[in-house]
TrEMBL record:
The keyword Repeat applies. The keyword Lipid metabolism does not apply. It comes from Cladocopium goreaui. The lineage of its organism: Eukaryota, Sar, Alveolata, Dinophyceae, Suessiales. PANTHER family: OS03G0856100 PROTEIN (PTHR47447), OS12G0638900 PROTEIN (PTHR47447:SF17). InterPro entries: PPR_rpt, TPR-like_helical_dom_sf. This is Smr domain-containing protein.
């Protein structure tokens, strides 16, 4: 996985040089590869670049960035991305709960689970397991 995110960054850089327009899908794929490699800074930079171009990242792209933060032990960044979502879903909350667990922020994870319930989002077995972990 380590080499894949570097390769994805290089492909994106080559696309920019060739003046291929950046799309949400292209950035989302980069963020997904970064999530798998725990490269949360690169994923967040890709998300910020979309925003600077006034392209609206979809929930899949934002969830990929959140997942990268979770795997990279960056719970504050994951929490900020959750707060930036207009309508966070179960996957978004669960990813941030995982990030909090990785950062030993168990009380925040429990709080997020309760926020899910108050937002009428039914926690899944995965959400509950992430909170317990």
């Amino acid at each position: 996985m380590q080499g894949q995110w570097l390769e994805a960054c290089q492909i994106l850089a080559n696309a920019k040089l060739a003046e291929v327009p950046l799309t949400v899908r292209l950035s989302s794929e980069l963020m997904n590869v970064c999530a798998q490699a725990s490269e949360w800074q690169v994923a967040c930079s890709a998300l910020a670049e979309l925003q600077s171009l006034r392209l609206e990242a979809d929930v899949v792209a934002k969830n990929s960035a959140i997942a990268a933060c979770a795997r990279g032990f960056a719970w504050p960044a994951a929490l900020q991305l959750l707060e930036d979502l207009a309508v966070p879903g179960e996957v978004s909350y669960t990813s941030v709960i995982n990030a909090c667990g990785n950062g030993h922020e168990w009380s925040l994870a429990v709080h997020l689970l309760s926020l899910m319930k108050s937002s009428w989002i039914s926690p899944s077995r995965i959400s509950c397991n992430a909170t317990i972990s």
